[in-house]
Design brief:
The chain has 487 residues and is α/β, with parallel strands linked by helices. It contains 11 helices and 21 strands. It is globular, with a radius of gyration of 22 Å.
């Protein structure tokens, strides 16, 4: 059936480490948070309440470029110290090349994190890249950055990164206004709001007199019913006033959340400027606008000040899409979706076949009918620095004692399997327990469901050709009494 309103252009806004809790239209944001320009997209489009773009920065980006989860991204590896990734473009192609071959003008602005092959002239007609894979040449987050413009060697650009990326995006759009007949895609990759969470000078006084933020219930160990590493994990302590403070820096959780959300203000302004430019061009309503982040970020939940872990607090990201005539305004979609669903959706929306087997689903039915039935299981994983064939070993350490993991979101349930031998699994009902505090895997009444989700996870790994599926370490199924009794 012919689609009623096919997008002429695609604007994919991709921020960094930005939790859904930083966007004021999302339940869970602090009441003092204000992001009017991002909220506008939700008023005029669909807000996804359960988006899992990835577990951390590099694989989220590689997933967009390939349409595959981390275990399927072949040849990408670290021949030397992180973040110096390399890959073989013959073994690991990017679908943007196919888009260009079909007459699209493509652009990328901002953070790049998949190795030194930026692909200007092959994937991109326009590129303004800050390459995190080469920190010595490109500089740190936010300030004192150098950027490669249209394939040239990196040159210092000064200023504040969020504003710089917005300005380069406006440069791209000015070029598209001069050639309105050619369709285009722009991937706008802000490096905010990644640590060190540097705030633009003009926003240092934003959100004054912030009240103490609520202390997450399990900010401190022991978390006795979670996996072994989670029973001891934590980077927060209680100060003399009963407030959570960082173990290493002594700053309160409230101070950190205030700074984090202040740094989001420039992002929101940038979104407003880019959307305003599209309006001035007369192309806003012809453009599929998508706003998301590479993953979320936990502030205190489960003891974290980090991403990486399989809990919603760590990795759930905002996702908002706008296209009048296709997407009904002011709607909410509760279906669980992943970053690997985005490439097949974009290709479907522009009428192109998949260039190879991708791991995600075409979300188009949810765009036109956000409350449509959606029965697809959502597989997620974190194998840290290992991609493709390097994940076949089936177990490893993700970071600071956090193991590799795989998880499956099916309806209201989330299943977590930590890839270390003899570890318990975790299972949560996200409707009754959205904070993921009660591990149902330890309840005998849920052991049948646990076995079903364990098998469905294996099935998804097989469907996506994961070499690790035959090397997964064994799990240990216990009841709460057995675990707490030391059995």
């Amino acid at each position: 059936m012919e689609q009623a309103n096919r997008p002429r252009n695609i604007l994919y806004i991709f921020t960094d480490d930005q939790s859904y809790r930083t966007v004021s239209c999302y339940p869970g944001a602090h009441p003092w948070v204000n992001t009017p320009n991002i909220d506008r997209l939700a008023r005029e489009g669909v807000r996804f309440s359960n988006c899992y773009t990835g577990a951390w920065c590099a694989p989220s980006r590689a997933t967009f470029l390939t349409g595959k989860l981390q275990h399927g991204i072949t040849s990408m590896h670290l021949p030397s110290q992180y973040p110096n990734y390399v890959r073989d473009p013959e073994r690991c192609p990017y679908w943007l090349e196919n888009l260009r071959d079909n007459g699209w003008h493509t652009g990328i602005v901002g953070k790049w994190h998949t190795g030194p092959d930026h692909g200007h002239g092959r994937y991109w007609d326009f590129s303004a890249i800050w390459d995190h894979s080469q920190p010595k040449a490109y500089g740190p987050y936010y300030t004192n950055q150098s950027m490669s413009i249209n394939g040239a060697p990196p040159e210092p650009v000064g200023g504040y990164s969020t504003d710089n990326y917005t300005n380069y995006a406006l440069d791209f759009l000015r070029g598209r206004a001069a050639d309105p007949d050619q369709p285009w895609l722009l991937w706008l990759c802000y490096d905010a709001v990644h640590g060190p969470w540097t705030v633009a000078d003009r926003h240092h006084e934003e959100y004054p007199d912030v009240p103490q933020v609520p202390t997450p219930e399990d900010i401190y160990p022991p978390r006795p019913t979670k996996a072994a590493h989670m029973r001891v994990y934590g980077v927060w302590r209680e100060d003399d006033h009963g407030r959570p403070v960082g173990i290493q820096d002594g700053r309160t959780l409230t101070d950190w959340e205030q700074q984090y959300n202040r740094a989001v203000r420039a992002l929101d302004e940038g979104v407003g400027k880019v959307i305003g430019a599209l309006e001035d061009m007369g192309q806003l309503d012809d453009t599929l606008v998508v706003f998301t982040s590479d993953q979320g970020f936990a502030w205190g939940q489960h003891g974290f000040r980090h991403k990486m872990a399989p809990y919603d607090a760590n990795i759930k990201a905002p996702m908002i899409m706008r296209l009048p005539g296709l997407i009904p305004a002011a709607t909410v979609c509760d279906a669980p979706i992943g970053g690997h669903d985005i490439p097949p959706t974009f290709l479907s929306q522009v009428g192109m076949d998949l260039p190879w087997k991708m791991h995600g689903q075409d979300l188009s039915p949810l765009l036109s009918e956000p409350d449509a039935e959606w029965d697809y299981p959502l597989l997620m994983e974190n194998t840290r620095y290992n991609f493709g064939e390097y994940t076949d070993i089936g177990c490893g350490e993700a970071e600071n004692g956090l193991p590799w993991w795989v998880s499956l979101r099916v309806g209201k349930h989330k299943y977590i399997r930590w890839l270390v031998p003899g570890e318990i699994e975790e299972l949560y009902d996200l409707e009754s327990d959205p904070e993921e505090l009660e591990n149902l895997a330890l309840e005998s009444a849920y052991h049948e469901l646990l076995a079903q989700l364990r098998q469905r996870t294996i099935n998804e790994l097989r469907r996506t050709d994961a070499g690790m599926v035959d090397n997964l370490p064994p799990v240990m199924v216990l009841t709460k009494d057995q675990l707490l009794g030391g059995v």
